[in-house]
């Protein structure tokens, strides 16, 4: 009986310690979400794992640079949103953060009303799951105009800091845009 009580106590203490250790994870996620909800993808990118940003840049930027010669109106609109005010040779030196911001401008342009209303959305972290000491999943609920949805974001602890992971596979994203530009 004593042994069962000790095991129960140990589990309770580990759950409390585990819960206390999620604050840094939650803080990074909240900061990321706050910037993203304000449509500030550049600021949100400061909490995204740099190697994820670099992988996305390596896969996607050449596709956008290659599409610049397209005369198709749709391609030029996409390029304009992606590159923003950057023109000419300066596009070749787009940073990984610039690529992330450009991709998110495209996503936001796809549903501007929804993204405009995100700043008024209510976000609640439901729970944080930590499969390992360096991995975490933040499960959250968004309330927007009386409707709610749940989602999750993965985070990684690298060099003593938590980072949000990019959800989309860089190669799949590049293939999508390559196909889109081929059609236009």
Report on the structure:
This protein has 184 residues and is α+β, with helices and mostly antiparallel strands. It has a single domain (26-183), classed as Nuclear Transport Factor 2, Chain: A (Roll), CATH 3.10.450. The protein is built from 8 helices and 4 strands. It has a 4-stranded antiparallel beta sheet. Helix 5 (73-83) packs across helix 6 (96-110). The chain is globular, with a radius of gyration of 20 Å.
> What is the count of β-strands?
4
The helix content, as a percent range, equals: 40-55%
**Uncertain ranges:** 1-20
Q: Give the class from helix and strand content and strand pairing.
A: alpha+beta
> How many discrete domains?
1
The string of secondary-structure elements, in order, is: HHHHHHHEEEEH
Major sheet size, sense and barrel closure? 4 strands, antiparallel
Q: What's the number of helices?
A: 8
Euclidean distance between termini CA atoms: 73 Å
CATH class: Alpha Beta
Strand content: 15-25%
């Amino acid at each position: 009986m004593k042994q069962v009580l000790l095991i129960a106590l140990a589990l309770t203490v580990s759950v409390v310690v585990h819960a206390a250790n999620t604050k840094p994870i939650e803080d990074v996620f909240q900061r990321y979400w706050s910037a993203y909800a304000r449509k500030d993808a550049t600021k949100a990118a400061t909490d995204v794992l740099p190697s994820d940003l670099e992988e996305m840049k390596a896969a996607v930027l050449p596709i956008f640079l290659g599409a610049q010669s397209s005369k198709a109106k749709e391609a030029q609109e996409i390029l304009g949103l992606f590159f923003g005010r950057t023109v000419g040779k300066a596009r070749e030196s787009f940073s990984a953060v610039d690529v992330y911001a450009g991709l998110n401008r495209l996503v936001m342009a796809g549903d501007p009303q929804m993204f405009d209303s995100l700043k008024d959305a209510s976000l609640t972290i439901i729970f944080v799951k930590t499969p390992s000491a360096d991995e975490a999943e933040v499960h959250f609920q968004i309330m927007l105009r009386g409707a709610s949805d749940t989602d999750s974001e993965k985070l990684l602890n690298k060099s003593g800091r938590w980072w949000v992971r990019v959800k989309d596979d860089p190669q799949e994203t590049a293939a999508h845009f390559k196909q889109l530009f081929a059609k236009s």
